[in-house]
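Lab notebook, design round three. We kept the backbone fixed and only want residue identities now. Task for the bench partner: fill in a sequence for the structure below.
Input structure tokens:
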């Protein structure tokens, strides 16, 4: 069977449920990809609204060189929404390890090239969706690349990559420029959604960064959708070191202006984490005091060496939340 025949067969097998909800997932990074994979089990439509403040690694290099949106998180979401295996999927997932392209993902380079060819990054994303046979749409939170700044222990920390690893009390977080409006497509899909999933992912540099774009939180607050925050499994050294689930929820809401009703989906149970992985502790009464409903579910991927969300378990939990909300 040729690669094209295999891709065609996969497209015929993997389909969204036409009776399911319209799902929008907001954030960035590996966590958002897991949520997108999980949503494919029950959604009728999936839109990923992705942060554009990443300035590290391959994305940072390409953004600076070509004045484009950071492609890394967008590429990861494209792959999460695309049937596997396929030739295009293998190409978009390939990463160079040597020479002057070391550290670059071929998918990032392809997106940069297509943006140059078509003159527009969103057109490049649309072409990539078609090539990959994507089951959903990937939408940048803003149409311009944004820069993240924070005040940590009274000191200015500049850039997403530096903020992610800086220890201390994060008291302020802002995007530069601060007045760059949200992508109208992002606002449109949030307004039409039945379920909005926020996270999982790096709390400040992925999740909050996406919702800080002017208009994003307001759109979520106006939307009739069920809003679910998927809390991280572990704390992150630097960004959320020592933070509880309640502190994650409080940080999300205080920095973004997101309002209740919100459901917080939090991992509970499963085998012990490795010694180096600090589980996010949860005290349900503290979350309830914030006006947020905690739902405790075993979400752990048993096959991963480092704790991460199991996309199947996460999808089942999100579907159950949706069905309960629908019956209210």
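Proposed sequence:
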């Amino acid at each position: 069977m040729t690669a094209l025949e295999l891709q065609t067969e996969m497209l015929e097998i993997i389909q969204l449920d036409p009776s399911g909800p319209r799902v929008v997932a907001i954030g960035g990074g590996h966590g958002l990809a897991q949520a997108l994979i999980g949503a494919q089990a029950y959604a009728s439509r999936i839109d990923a609204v992705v942060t554009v403040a990443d300035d590290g690694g391959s994305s940072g290099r390409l953004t600076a060189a070509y004045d484009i949106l950071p492609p890394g998180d967008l590429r990861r979401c494209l792959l999460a929404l695309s049937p596997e295996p396929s030739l295009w999927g293998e190409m978009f997932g390939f990463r160079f390890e040597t020479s002057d392209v070391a550290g670059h993902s071929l998918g990032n380079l392809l997106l940069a090239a297509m943006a140059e060819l078509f003159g527009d990054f969103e057109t490049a994303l649309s072409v990539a969706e078609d090539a990959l046979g994507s089951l959903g749409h990937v939408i940048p939170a803003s149409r311009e690349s944004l820069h993240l700044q924070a005040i940590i222990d009274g000191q200015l920390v500049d850039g997403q990559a530096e903020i992610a690893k800086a220890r201390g009390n994060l008291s302020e977080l802002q995007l530069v420029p601060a007045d760059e409006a949200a992508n109208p497509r992002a606002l449109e899909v949030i307004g039409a959604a039945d379920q909005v999933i926020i996270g999982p992912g790096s709390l400040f540099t992925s999740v909050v960064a996406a919702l800080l774009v002017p208009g994003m939180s307001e759109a979520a607050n106006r939307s009739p959708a069920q809003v679910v925050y998927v809390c991280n499994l572990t704390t992150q050294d630097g960004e959320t070191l020592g933070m509880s689930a309640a502190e994650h929820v409080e940080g999300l809401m205080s920095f973004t202006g997101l309002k209740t009703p919100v459901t917080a989906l939090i991992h509970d149970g499963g085998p012990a984490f490795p010694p180096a992985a600090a589980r996010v502790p949860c005290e349900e009464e503290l979350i309830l005091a914030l006006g947020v409903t905690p739902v405790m579910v075993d979400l752990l991927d048993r096959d991963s060496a480092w704790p991460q969300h199991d996309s199947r378990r996460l999808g089942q939990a999100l579907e159950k939340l949706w069905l309960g909300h629908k019956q209210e």
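Keep this in mind before ordering anything: The chain has 14 helices and ten strands.
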